[in-house]
Amino acid sequence: MRFMPGSRTARRATVALTAAAALAVAGCGGTGGEGGGDAAADGGNLTVWIMEGTNPDAGPFFEELSAAFQQRTGATLDVQFVQWASAHDRFVTAIAGGTTPDVAEIGTTWVGEFGDAGALVDLTPRVQDAGLTDGLVQGLEEAGRLEDGLYGMPWYAGVRSIVYRTDVFAELGLAPPTTWDELVAVGQRIKEARPDLLPLPIAGDNEFLVYPFLWGTGGEIATQNGDTWVSGVDSPQAREGIRFYADLALTHGFSTPAAATWRETDLRDSFTKGQSAMIMSGSWTPKAILEAAPDLEGKIGAFPIPGPDGGLAPSVLGGSLLSVFETTEDQELAWQLVEMMGTGEFASKWAAESSYFPGTEQLLQEAAQSPDPLVAPFARQMVDSGRSVPVTPLFGQIQGNKTIAAMMRSILTGEATVEQATTTAAAEMNQIFAGGA
Amino acid sequence: MTLRERTRPAGGAATPAPPARRRPGTGTSRPWLLLAPALLVMGGLLLYPMFRVLVLSLQDFGLRELVSGRTDWVGADNYAELLGDPALWTTVLPNTVGFAVVAVALTVVFGTLVALLLAQLSPLLRGLVTTAIMVAWAMPAVTGTYVWVFAFTPGDGIVVQALDALGLVDAATANPFSSRLAFFAVAALNVVHHGFPFVALTVLAGLLTVPQEITEAAIVDGANAWRRFWSVTFPMLRPVFAVVTVLSTIWDFKVFTQIYLMPGGDGVNRSVLTLGTWSYVESFAQNRYGLGAAIAVLLTALLLVVTVAYLRLLFREDEL
Are A172 and A241 contacting, i.e. CB atoms less than 8 angstroms apart? Predict the structure, then answer.
């Protein structure tokens, strides 16, 4: 391009070009949503969306499942893997474009949202016919329930407990704590004797690790009052739990200021790097920890998050449900697949391969008998004190807004006191509850 | 060259009249015919979505509306909520404007300095340096952001360690992502690093068209380098600077990836929200597409105002 300073036409052309380029450039940058797969179940074919990464090697499982399903019903499966990170967007665009799959694995916090939007089939009558009504893991069933309908069949679940270094505990003669006072004492002992280790880092950018403490002192995230919900994070009980949790970092110095912006994965990184003695971690992580740090083999153990004065603190039950979409042509066929995946042989196989727990009571009880020291404590926490976050599509909005994580971050960075931060968070939650009612 | 000139009959000054064969009317329809493919593409991919966003911003549009196809017109409610939100005035708008101004200024100044350096180099060296800065440009924003976040990781990030060694910060307690200013400083480094090669190469292309004689004449007149830049180079390259500044402004105003992927940038740290991330959090994380669309319209309007104002400033009234 050659610019002629003296020529007016050249200038005008440049200005026009600039404006056009500006418009064009300003317009791009958004990524279009990918449409869903083949929605139609024509001629006995089901499209299934499965989240990627839960089971590190899911290929053989689905080959086996497809073969068994074809043998039983004659229908074929088209299994498509979806990334967790982009799954919400993909579901939403698929719902909008009518290209949803027939059956899909859906995260616990999304079932209410999609069910409320009218995209999912109510499975209540089918679950009843199959005699499963009382056999589902409660926390997961709650997540699938919206008013009187059940929009997801519990598939698998996990829970968070505390993973610790057995070698450090043995060296210092410590035993896993069973009360909050003991937890503090253990942390202090580690801090004194092993200054190279963080006793228990507290991640600011995570909501699920706050709830065991908020619930532990008798607080509630939110309570339902007839048709409306009210936030409970600013109640005295909730504040007491949140303050104890924050003080692990702020008063007792078990954490590092850097952790104020950490996510759950950062906790795991610090543990695999050998920088932490205890971390709060999911039941699905010990396998991954040992893969990332083989030298920790035989040096890690787990214990349930204790309650303030003994017992166990409630811990969030996270996992997935299997749902049937309204767009499916053959609901009966779709349900057969859901039943096959959610019960019996395939359900326990999936749970075992993915290091999660199955979604039916009977199978969960079997798994809880496991003598494995990296499974049993999690199973105890899940069976005895697994709990669901408030089941309303509005809570999905609050999670999207990252209200609780924002609250925790501001407390840990010292920007706000527990009182201020909980008041702000409660106001934000109540605004969303009020706006969506 | 403008379109009118292009469609004028070809030929030198000696050809006085258009060819007689031409039917009347083709003179006005032909440009449109030629423009049609581009207009169709622009219309389908750009103007229609823009129109949809405008329509959406006047509705209460959530997932339920998306599934059922119902529409719920709320007039200017979304705009009223948006403009009445104190967060917009105290956090989001100052963040967006402040960040864009600083990032654009740094990008253009640094890019120009690099261009001036490149113009001095021998072809071989110039090729080497150009290749090096092209790497920064070619790096996807996501990758680049992760590299910068990695370098600034509290505790053991290489930059934090280096600053600690210099005694400027304490690596054990410093967290560059927790305070608003430090957060945006890291974001600005990232954005400038990613954006300056475009400025440098565009300005370099312009510099190479400045006739050697003019510069030589200025040297003979005793003008120093500073004076030559402002009296010779800059006036001749004004259109180039207009392009790079306007484009940088647009990019830096609507910056999203670089902020969203930093710790706390996805809405957890409320004090670092920008119009881009706020719009995303409202629309996609909360399924409030109407409000998200209203924020996007506000951002577009703001960009148009800034662009027009800037072009007015750069070019005198009569040139437009």
Answer: no
pTM of the model: 0.79
**Cβ contacts of residue A114 below 8 Å, gap of 6+?**
A91, A95, A106, A120, A151, A323, B63
| Number of Cβ atoms within 10 Å of the Cβ of B270 | 22
Interface confidence, given as ipTM, is 0.74
CB contact under 8 A, A22 and B5: no
Would you state the structure tokens that stand for residue B260, as one six-digit string? 């969203």
Task: Check: CB of residue A154 under 8 Å from CB of residue A312.
Answer: no
Burial of A30 (0-12, 13-18, 19+ CB in 10 A): exposed
Q: What is the pLDDT of residues B117-168, one digit of tens each?
A: 999 888 899 999 999 999 888 989 999 999 999 999 887 889 988 988 998 8
d(CA A269, CA A272): 5
- Answer whether B191 touches A (CB < 8 Å): no
Distance CA A117, CA A325 (A): 11
Supply B18's token pair: 């258009």
H/E segment holding residue A77: strand A76-82
Question: What is the rounded distance in angstroms from the CA atom of residue A419 to the CA atom of residue A235?
Answer: 10
Rounded Cα distance between B64 and A234, Å, is: 31
Do residue B284 and residue A89 have CB atoms under 8 angstroms apart? yes
Any chain A CB within 8 A of the CB of B161? no
Kindly state the DSSP code that residue B73 receives in the 8-state scheme: B
CA-to-CA separations, A275 to A197, A254, A257, A281, B175, in angstroms, rounded = 5, 12, 14, 15, 17
Q: Which of residues 111-150 of B touch A (CB under 8 A)?
A: none
> Does the pLDDT at position A1 exceed 50?
no
Choose among B68, B246, B264: nearest Cβ to A22. Answer: B246
Nearest CA to A117 out of A136, A139, A98 is that of A98
Tell me how far apart the alpha carbons of residues B165 and B171 are, in angstroms, rounded to a whole number: 9
The model's pLDDT over A162-209, given as tens digits with 9 standing for 90+, comes to 999 999 999 999 999 999 999 999 999 999 999 999 999 999 999 999
